[in-house]
Amino acid sequence: MRNHSKGTYLAHILFLGAATVALLLPFIDKAFHIDDTLFLWTARQIIERPWDFYGFQANWDGALSPATAIIKNPPIAAYYMALVGWFGGFTEKTLHLAFMFPAVMAIWGVYSLARRMSSSPLLAAFLCLATPAFLVSSTTLMCDVMLVAFWVWAAFFWIKGVEDLSRFSLLFAGILVALASLTKYFGVSLIPLLAVYSLLHGRKGFGALFYLIIPVAALGGYHFYTQILYGKGLLLEASSYSAHIAGGSERLERSIVGLVFAGGCLVTALFFLVSIWGLKAFIGAVALIAGAIVYLVSRKSLGVIELWSGSFGWAYAAQLAVYASTGAAIVILWLLDFIRKRDAYSVLLGLWIAGTFAFTVFFNWTVNARSILPMAPAVAILLARAAEDARPGMARQIIPIALALAVSFSVAWSDYSLANSARDAARTIAAKYSSGPGQLWFQGHWGFQYYMEAKGAKAIEWNGQQVRPQDSIAFPYNNTGLRLMPVENYSVIDDFKYAPMPFLSTMTLGPGAGFYASEWGPLPFMLLPPNGERYQVLVPR
Questions:
Q1: What is the pTM of this model?
Q2: Residues 193 and 258 grouped into a single domain
């Protein structure tokens, strides 16, 4: 562990906590967004029947289905939300305030972990905070940032336990691994990761493996409990939801998209590496970007994007190339760290990043920023370790962080505006059409569904749903679970358009950017999106 006085440690923690809260406060009234709705439903169920967290049904894909068929995350985050909602209510401001706590704990954990691996823990913490993946995810009410908080503290106490021969630290780390795994299933990967780290310490670390029984037992208990409660064990059930990667070409394409998402979601690396490595990094970056553009010129498409047609020309390719090159630079960053230091920390950080990337690209149902997020602390610590060797001046540390924060805050504001536009649209449509004479239906899900149902509208069910002549249907163009309504059967009576943030988008209408799902596009966020948001109201002819 590097030497830092207790006074310095406390000052740094207070500074990091204040900075994290200050960055998140502008988003305190952010509308419920994407899968926030699933966690809200689960939290309300927990208040009614705390032992039966998924004992409800909901329409999330056009049919009324059991929650166990819809929700692919364990319930720890929803229990936290239920506790907050029980005392403070399920308002946007109350819940966003409460979810600042996991964000602060995550950044504190990055700092504490970096203290053991680097002489610049404060730098590492800010490099993590300044990533779009962390900042945007901290403005949602999903389980991802909570996972990171449990993850970094589990790693910290495990390392402390192995190196200091502290049984209490290992016991606490085992509990934290269990909590991480029951917050998001990807937390299970901590078990082999920490096992490898322990084995690198030989006989000293071998005894620590016993404490991994704690998360294994917790996961086994959860699996059998849900088997009894719902007729299927949810731990193994979740694994069947992963994407099926059919062949080599698809693997290659997803790997490229994964590099693009890693570079974009962890864009801090782009600014910081150029700053600390100077001309060598700049020349290397130019070479990587040029190579990426040459490769993209040879392709007709990437993901859902038809390159070199319509809106997807040189400007779009440049964004892809810059982010993909940054993703490749992260790999180079780790290789150089391993070559120079050859310590257990380097192995741990490398496996941490590689495991997260492999899961995102080859096992998750989609490539998205939420899956990239767990590698943000590891990349931040690697950057701080690189700074030790480069010894950059204060300006060369502050300027890239400021640039990364500017980008990340803009991305977070874009996502904030997008979420709020769905809430505004739902309220406007419901105010105009929910009072009859017929039923107001809607397509789409995510936050739009939450606000529509709060106003009395109902989600369409495709298995025989009858829409009467006096009914109306709200149709959000940029959403999930949509089916086009036949023009011969329905007429458009209203058309609402919104421009959440004209120069930046996290989920574009039409392909382009897919922060939450690469099916929307191979960029995590897109400059100058071609379209704004659009909602229509239709009635039967």
A1: 0.93
A2: no
